[in-house]
């Protein structure tokens, strides 16, 4: 499947520590959501690294997926409000990610998947998405004076 090649990249081994240089879009509400997602990925990885309780890992993973869903809805609402032409394509990517995350979450719950699979997949998907598609949307917002909420 398409995401396996991505999860083999070097980025899989890197922590997802949000930094302005690597992850900022310049849209503060979106950046705040991305910081929260990075913190949750880090939290899941820390629980797994400490060989923590699987139930606790599942609880944080579930929260991570819910937080991603909320973030995508918020981001798509910003796009709709701005009349962004790339909304449909962008929303389709969000939907694909969520479907995969739900599947990985289910597999983890069933005990057929390692605890690092979901946070690694999400990180490897999210970082290039923020750097590409999310930043591209904010670039479009900048073209219209007064459109970009500075937070
Ligand atoms: Fe997005
Ligand atoms: Fe985003």
TrEMBL record:
Pfam family membership, one = Hemerythrin
PROSITE patterns documented for this protein: HEMERYTHRINS
- InterPro entries per record: Haemerythrin_Fe_BS, Hemerythrin, Hemerythrin-like, Hemerythrin-like_sf, Hemerythrin_metal-bd
Does this entry carry the keyword Iron? yes
Q: What are the residue boundaries of the Hemerythrin-like domain, all occurrences included? A: 27-138
Say yes or no: keyword Transcription present. no
Q: Which terms does the record give in the GO molecular function aspect?
A: metal ion binding; oxygen carrier activity
Keywords assigned: Iron, Metal-binding, Oxygen transport, Transport
By sequence similarity, the record places it as follows: Belongs to the hemerythrin family.
Can you say what this protein is called?
Hemerythrin-like domain-containing protein
The source organism is Mesoterricola sediminis
